[in-house]
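Justification of resources, computational component.

The compute hours requested in this renewal are based largely on the per-chain cost of generating structure records like the one below. Each record pairs the submitted sequence with a full structure-token output. That output is archived, and it is also reused by downstream analysis tasks.
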Amino acid sequence: MTYVITSLCTNDGACVEVCPVACIHTTPGAPQFYIDPEVCIDCEQCEIVCPVDAIFRDSDVPPEHQTSIEVNAVFFRKNKAAVGPVPFDKAWEMVQAAHAYARRQGMAITAVVVDEAGSPITVGRMDGAEPKTAELAFNKAYTAAAFHLATAELAPQARRPWLRSLVISHRGRIMPESGGIAIVDGSAVLGAIGVAGGSRPEQDVLCCQAALAVLESPGH
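The structure output for this chain reads:
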């Protein structure tokens, strides 16, 4: 499910400040804010803080505001930049770069690159890496893509009720632990890299950074 902002919106902006995944936007001169249905994670924070009760779950939108569902979606179809995911060959280079760093540190890891929707592009599990690291790395990448940020930034909020409920509702796929970083191009999120198996959480992060360096090198 996703949330929808109706025409009752007064452009207060409180919802923008509490949204953990930056799914609420507007443009100069627009009459209201809008929620991106492809990014919203159903965390209900926007609905809680809205001072005029202009925000509803899509399944609970009143009959007189049903058109708002399409209005929100159309706004993003018109204004979202057309950016594709990381190509497979680049994603594989990223995985190999993460492996190379881990190998130099004497570690065996799994690295996963996903697209913006959290679907895997490539997975690489090193010899000696524990089987469970494949799922953990994917979960971290999925989380980073969903929240549009590094999972280490979510770690301090792991005990917050809203985040705990998301972890439960997503059956553990949301993972607020270090080792996942979003892949961004300007303001667009292309996907994310996730790593598991490092000797310490910060080692997973360093493996991710080694992978991201592939995209920053000349020619990429």
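The longest helix spans residues 88-104. The first strand starts at residue 3 and ends at 5.
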